[in-house]
Amino acid sequence: MTVIRKKTKKVSDKEIIRTILETGNTNLFGILYDRYANKVYRKCLSMVKNRDDAQDLSHDILVKTFLNISKFEGNSSFSTWVYAITYNQCIDFLRQKQKVRKVNYEESSEVMEKEEDNGVQEKKILEMEVERLQELLFEVSPEDRAILLMKYKEEMSVEDIQGVLSLSSSAVKMRLKRARDRLRKQYLKKYGAFKQHDEQF
Amino acid sequence: MNEENKFNAFKRIFEGENLPEEHKEQVMQQIDTLKFIMDVADIFTIKQVKANSQLCEALLNNEQEDHNSSEDVD
Q1: Same domain, A89 and A170
Q2: What CATH number does the domain containing A124 carry?
């Protein structure tokens, strides 16, 4: 068993997918399950909070991944593709459950924040206490939550986020900035000031 | 905790949460069931149509050959 595990570790996702498509062997999907199921689950949990919902969603996402596996073109990595399914499925779930209205942001025209300011804001957010961050993430919209998680948890590039959300590069940057702003405002509303960088803030 | 995660709170959200053991079995079972349904549907749609057209073609060819051979005898 250990030998098999060691061997499958070396096989790339793309190679496994190719073999599944060629042979129709569903058991091979088990390898991809082992690689991604818990990651998918944690992403669902970050999005919906409730463990039962996150487990059900993970189930649906992994089955959906298998059913759509022939559509995976290999332009991005398999993990990015799976995370795209995950976030979109979670957002749909939350929209249905909470009847969350689709957030319509004005995409361009607004003056972009200086890169320097973005960096300071980012640092503050990343240095937040985990418990506080976890709480705050559930107080912003699912769309904001998803884009923040994609950027800072998955460390996805703007190009990859573009692919997931079907947006232009400037729209992604704008949404990220606004999501950060809302998270920051929520933090200040709730906790008064940032613990470490109060003066700068 | 690795160094990178130490400075990024996002990385530590729900860290250590895992799916229950039986989850994999449930997913794999559903995938097997769906694959079976797709295979059966494939047999009665695409493959059957293909088989029918091949059969018709073979019958027509046979008939044509019979016709040709009877003309040769005449």
Answers
A1: no
A2: 1.10.10.10
* Structure-block tokens of residue A73: 């073109």
CB-based contact (8 Å) between A133 and chain B? yes
In the predicted structure, residue A103 carries a pLDDT above the cut 80: no
**pLDDT-based confidence at A179, cuts 50/70/90?**
very high
Per-residue 3-state assignment (H helix, E strand, C coil) for chain A: CHHHHHHHHHCCHHHHHHHHHHHCCHHHHHHHHHHHHHHHHHHHHHHHCCHHHHHHHHHHHHHHHHHCHHHCCCCCCHHHHHHHHHHHHHHHHHHHHHCCCCCCCCCCCCCCCCHHHHHHHHHHHHCCCHHHHHHHHCCCCHHHHHHHHHHHHCCCCHHHHHHHHCCCHHHHHHHHHHHHHHHHHHHHHHHCCCCCCCCCC
For residue A103, being part of any structural domain is answered with no
Q: Which of A28, A33, A49 should be substituted to probe chain B, the one whose Cβ sees the most B Cβ atoms within 10 Å?
A: A33
